[in-house]
Here is the input.
Amino acid sequence: HVQLVESGGGSVQAGGSLRLSCAASGYTLCMGWFRQAPGKEREGVAVISTSSGSTYYADSVKDRFTISQDSNKNTLYLQMNNLKPEDTAMYYCAARLTFACTGGSWGAVYNFPNWGQGTQVTVS
Here is the structure.
């Protein structure tokens, strides 16, 4: 089990930027960001394999969001640029220790047993 603590959410106007951070308490193989808007299912935003650096993104955030990591600090980041009102959601950090991120099911919520408490992002 790994503990995850997110930070960096907030309120921003459309077109603005935010950077989310997620500090992990230990070793992981795949980490990612998910989001959940009111009345909607949780969805994958972006994930990164912590050993290879391979990344996968949702089509809705490609070219606007960038996922990255600082392996020395066990910290995950999500740089969000050109934010849109439809990006408004609770953003969650997730991780797993069992296998690396894979392309086919990279955004499957059920593949991630470890979750942070979430950080709110509001775009107006």
The chain has a mean pLDDT of 95. The longest strand covers residues 89-96. Residues 96 and 113 are 6 Å apart (CA to CA).
